[in-house]
Amino acid sequence: DSYYADQQQGLFIVADGMGGHAAGEIASQMAVDAVREYWQTSNMNNPLELLQQAVEKANQAVKQAADDNPSWQGMGTTLTILLLQQGRGYITHVGDSRIYRLRNQQLEQLSDDHSLVGEQLRRGIITAEQAKTSNFGNVLLQAIGVTPTLDICQAEFSLQAGDQFLLCSDGLTNMVKDKTIAVLLNQPKALSSNLAELMEKAITTKALKHDNITAILLQIEQL
User: Fold this and answer.
1) Which residue in 41, 67, 122, 171 has the fewest CB atoms around it within 10 Å?
2) Contact 72/66 with Cβ under 8 angstroms?
3) pTM for the complete prediction?
4) How far is the C-alpha of 80 from the C-alpha of 88, rounded, in Å?
5) DSSP letter for each residue of the chain
6) What is the pLDDT of residues 81-104, one digit of tens each?
7) How far from the centroid of its chain's Cα atoms is residue 205's Cα?
């Protein structure tokens, strides 16, 4: 996993790599770096268009690196971005890492899971309970560096004081239910304490499953 958090710029990124050896780690870091560099050098005024092009640049960079290096073939990464700017929030997302918003004590997943199970759930082929136990939970329909074109999930919304946002890899969400996430984030404690409890909950319920866990938790104090 790789991540980036810049409070001044309002840019937050989580990427969960896949691929043998260290390829997944390389893919996730490359994707984060590509987005960050494009964001810093572009002068585009439309945030969603800028982020879309940044993701496409990341996709090209990871795919080209895999094509050029046989030991990296098959590598890819999820890529989940949240941009906060002038009272607005912007999401750009590929893969099955997630962005949640806690508003008025209610937790909402803002990103779509680009996975086989996520698609089956959206089409009503399986139920939410069946999705939790599906054997196809890790089958991604798209990821950065794997396909030449992407169906990027994007959204724009207004911010409210008190909004909390959680960006996380599936190492967290595979282990902790949404209901538990909501309970922990609603605790009247410091964000760092709530995030630490959330991570600890995921680690202690991992059982025999091995996966990295990466999460960013932030709150809008005032607008």
Assistant:
1) 41
2) yes
3) 0.91
4) 17
5) -EEEEETTTTEEEEE-EESTTTHHHHHHHHHHHHHHHHHHH---S-HHHHHHHHHHHHHHHHHHHHHH-GGGTT-EE-EEEEEEETTEEEEEEESS-EEEEEETTEEEE-SPP-BHHHHHHHTTSS-HHHHHH-TTTT-BS--BTTSSS---EEEEEE--TT-EEEEE-HHHHTTS-HHHHHHHHTSSS-HHHHHHHHHHHHHHT-TT------EEEEE----
6) 999 999 999 999 999 999 999 999
7) 21
